[in-house]
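step 3/5: co-fold with pyridoxal-5'-phosphate
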Amino acid sequence: MPAVGVRRSLSPRSHAERAEVLAAPGFGRVMTDHMVIAEWTHEHGWAPAEVVPYAPVQIDPANMALHYGQSIFEGLKAYQWADGSIRAFRPDRNAARFARSATRMAMPVLPEETFLASLHALVGVDRAWVPTAPETSLYLRPLMFATENGLGVRPANRYLFLLLASPAGPYFARGLNPVTVWVSDDYVRAAPGGTGEAKCAGNYAASLVAQAEAMAHGCDQVVWLDAAEHAWIEEMGGMNLFFVYGSGADAHLVTPSLTGALLPGVTRDSLLRLAPDLGIPAREDRISLADWRSGVQSGDISEVFACGTAAVITPVGTARTRTDTWVMGEGGTGPVTARLREALVSIQTGRAADPYGWTVLLAEPAA
Ligand SMILES: Cc1ncc(COP(=O)(O)O)c(C=O)c1O
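step 4/5: write tokens
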């Protein structure tokens, strides 16, 4: 693994200041004392990554990322286990997706070893920032953006890779609450050949107006349909979707196929592997909005849930369009959803064995 140098902060926050944050971390509000930084230039390629004190970076007004949007990111979590060690969940998958996002956006690929070495180095230095209460974690945010200045439209010849860390509390303050979703008809998130499967900043900017529309209709999240026919379910806000057909011993899962317009979620991939091992067959397929509505009405679809790093698994209780509203089962958290969530969280947090080798040690227990 490449060496990552460390330049420690001379003014880290006090124990008391940190304790106050860790008592109620929220999400993405407070960054730790350090970050990782590495620069890529066309002439020299990647400079060695370094842990440095967390600080603003200076942006020139002609910065090309501001104008033309070469900016990508990732999101993953590290958990403190009962033995005091700190482990990440499948960080290699985030490293690989970061590389694919970079390629799609004509940006340089950060070697996956550098991505992983950066996680180790930052968590090693800022390990005291990992919260320990149930359902808490250290959220890790790698990002890369263009830093060349100029107004010509072309790939920049200079980029910064940064890795930030931020303590995260339980995603839902009141526990596992089903969400109400708004099926967007006016807007699409991604089109064939577009950037839907890349984790680029612009995808999220383009989603905000639809999210506002969802909220105006009393919904928590947007569900996206395909761009060509407005008929096929793609994904939800920042999460992938699963449909539970049947119930009890007959339950099986279907998740929309990866068409190039969806983000290939790490959680989605993990559930496709884990569910069959729990006796719940799972497959990828096309699911239409009409199938969803009629499946719920006939009782064939018993539960629907969303999955992603932030909230792991979230039940979808109610779906709404301009003309229609339908409720999944009783509108609560179904038994398959609850079981899968418990199984996955148990692996992530070390409460259950990890037969898949998904959890990766970032820092040994503190001495
Ligand atoms: C648009 C979108 N879909 C799905 C996901 C879920 O992906 P993951 O399970 O890798 O967090 C995310 C979150 O990264 C997302 O932003």
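step 5/5: annotate
The chain has a mean pLDDT of 96.
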